[in-house]
């Protein structure tokens, strides 16, 4: 039986362009073990694939083509938009969700973000000129586009050696950047993905953006 998979474009712009494509398996029971889920994520070849284990309680499971993740930003924003719940449940904790002005937001703690190296550059031109590095550390390269306005230019290089040399939009890294800077940022990542992030008042950081459904997993 063909699995019921929906593809979403997360952190797209106002016209539905750009963004990172996410695969969502609507019924996680079709893939009951980690091995089968990892195999599907590898077959799809997307930055992340989410398996919905309980659509009513918001219990989800996240995979890259190579590993299972305890937390990730853009998959959670995407599945939050899809399910329409007030919370998602992950092993790391409960993820509050809100919606406003066409944006879907989640709130999470910076310590939940897997290791990322935030590497600041002096200009957006330097960031644009970067080549994807060899597999190694996960690098989030960024520069101020307009520091006073909180506008950032960024690119994400997972360094995992799983075929994803550059991530088009990475909510977890934007969350970590906003937490480190202690201020709200509006990030343009990759070819034009739009990510919003801002520290909260309770020790969490909010990340948000637009989401739309797409016909097939193409960026």
UniProtKB/TrEMBL annotation:
Could you tell me which InterPro entries the record lists for this protein? Phenazine_PhzF-like (IPR003719)
Source species, domain of life: Bacteria
UniProt protein name: PhzF family phenazine biosynthesis protein
Concerning SUPFAM superfamilies, the annotation shows: Diaminopimelate epimerase-like
| Organism (species) | Streptacidiphilus monticola
């Amino acid at each position: 039986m063909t699995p019921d998979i929906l593809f979403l474009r997360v952190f797209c712009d106002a016209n539905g362009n750009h963004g990172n494509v996410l695969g969502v398996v609507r019924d996680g029971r079709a893939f009951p073990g980690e091995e089968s889920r990892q195999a599907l994520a590898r077959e799809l070849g997307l930055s992340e694939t989410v398996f919905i284990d309980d659509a009513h309680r918001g219990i989800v499971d996240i995979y890259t083509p190579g590993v299972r993740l305890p937390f990730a930003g853009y998959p959670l924003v995407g599945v939050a938009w899809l399910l329409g719940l007030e919370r998602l449940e992950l092993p790391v904790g409960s993820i509050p969700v809100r919606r406003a002005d066409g944006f879907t937001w989640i709130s999470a703690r910076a310590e939940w973000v897997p290791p990322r190296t935030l590497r600041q550059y002096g200009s957006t031109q330097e960031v644009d000129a970067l080549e994807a590095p060899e597999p190694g550390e996960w690098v989030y390269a960024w520069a101020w586009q307009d520091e006073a306005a909180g506008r950032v230019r960024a690119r994400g290089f997972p360094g995992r050696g799983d075929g994803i040399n550059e991530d088009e939009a990475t909510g977890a890294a934007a969350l970590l950047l906003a937490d480190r800077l202690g201020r709200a940022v509006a990030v343009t990542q990759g070819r034009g993905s739009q990510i919003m992030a801002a520290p909260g008042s309770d020790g969490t950081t909010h990340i948000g953006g637009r989401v739309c459904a797409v016909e097939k997993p193409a960026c």
